[in-house]
UniProtKB/TrEMBL annotation:
SUPFAM superfamilies noted in UniProt: FMT C-terminal domain-like
Protein name: Formyl transferase C-terminal domain-containing protein
InterPro entries associated with the record: Formyl_trans_C, Formyl_trans_C_sf, Formyl_transferase-like_C_sf
Disordered: annotated segments: 124-147
One Gene Ontology term of the molecular function aspect: methionyl-tRNA formyltransferase activity
CC annotations in GO: mitochondrion
Superkingdom per UniProt: Eukaryota
Pfam families recorded: Formyl_trans_C
Residue intervals of the Formyl transferase C-terminal domain: 3-97
Regions that span the bilayer: none
Lineage: Eukaryota, Metazoa, Chordata, Craniata, Vertebrata
Length: 147
């Protein structure tokens, strides 16, 4: 119930879900095979046209508002805080986990940069959190706001 399905849910649906259960059960997603709790929802965000073409689950750090934006079915929604092993601000998450991608290869398309929906019905378990690695396969995009 608290899993966000980025490909299927709209900004309004995610907002209603957060208002309904977010204070008791955090919204959840997967990143690099690990569970992430999405905290401090700030609502729908407007971004540039170029960034608006990103695939659902794409991540964008908006520096001016210190907000982590995630692409859903019809737009971008923002979160101020995420929880991996411990609570991290959006800026800390970007600096600690995502910044490496921007330094090495700007706008690198990479599968594990995306927030993903719940694991398919398999026996697969999420892995322990490991530092991001750059690879050859590419399916998603991580963006950094130019503002």
């Amino acid at each position: 119930m608290s899993w966000v399905m980025w490909e299927e849910q709209t900004c309004d649906h995610i907002s209603r879900l957060y208002r309904a259960i977010g204070s008791r059960v955090p919204l959840r997603t997967l990143w690099m095979g690990d569970f992430i709790k999405l905290l401090d929802f700030v609502g729908k965000f407007s971004v540039s046209e170029a960034e608006d073409r990103a695939v659902p689950g794409s991540i964008l750090f908006h520096k001016e508002s210190n907000t982590l934006l995630v692409r859903c079915k019809d737009g971008w929604v923002g979160f101020k805080t995420v929880m991996l092993r411990k609570r991290l601000s959006a800026a800390d998450f970007y600096n600690g986990y995502l910044h490496t991608f921007f330094i090495k290869r700007h706008c690198l398309q990479h599968q594990h940069c995306l927030f993903q929906s719940k694991l398919a019905q398999t026996n697969e378990q999420p892995s322990r959190l490991t530092p991001p690695r750059l690879g050859a396969h590419a399916t998603g995009t991580v963006y950094r706001s130019k503002d």
